[in-house]
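Team,

Forwarding the record for the chain on the shared tracking sheet. I've put the sequence and predicted structure together so nobody has to dig through attachments.
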Amino acid sequence: MDYMQPVFWLALLKIIWINVLLSGDNAVVIAMACRSLPDRLRRWGMIMGAAVAVGMRVIFTAVVATLLGLPWLKIVGSLALMYIAVDLVLPEDEAGEGGVQAHDSLWRAVGTIAVADLVMSLDNVVAIAAVADGNWTLIIIGLLISIPMIIAGAALIMSLLARFPFLVWAGAALLGWVAGEMFISDVKIHEWLGELTVEHLEYPVAAAGAALVVAIGWLIGRQRHARHAES
């Protein structure tokens, strides 16, 4: 593909737009994972988290054709994403004010973002790879340009989370919804239930994933609160 041809720049614009449209859930994860960081580390957490998210897209584009065809992969991924969603909504353990150092918290936040994006990028890179048609220059440039867009989205969501704490639960429910969609779209599920049944179950299973995350998070949160109250 000639870099001076309009078709190259049109494809680049498509990749940037697709990544912006598909990065809403990544911005939610980045915002939720970084919301408890000290102010001086929060920006670094968002920048590093966005860089990890984009890096995951580049890596996955190389192997997506093989990975998405494997049975069980999306089922495992959906369970991992639900675990992450519950973990993000739980209150921090009260281990004392000096118990966790700031840099440990930063790396933990970045690790959470990495695992979540590892799971959620499986579907997103399909569209990007299709537009790029194997052109790695297009893929890398398009994703690098999208970094500030992801950071801006995460910053906006984080400011809303600070003002309206209940939105943390809404973010966890969103991740649960994505996990439900991923679960029902696995190759094995399609084999067991058939295409028509899966099509009818897509929204109910996604809603069940969202409800399950909220319910588990609420129950574990209550148990932790009760233990802290007794001690």
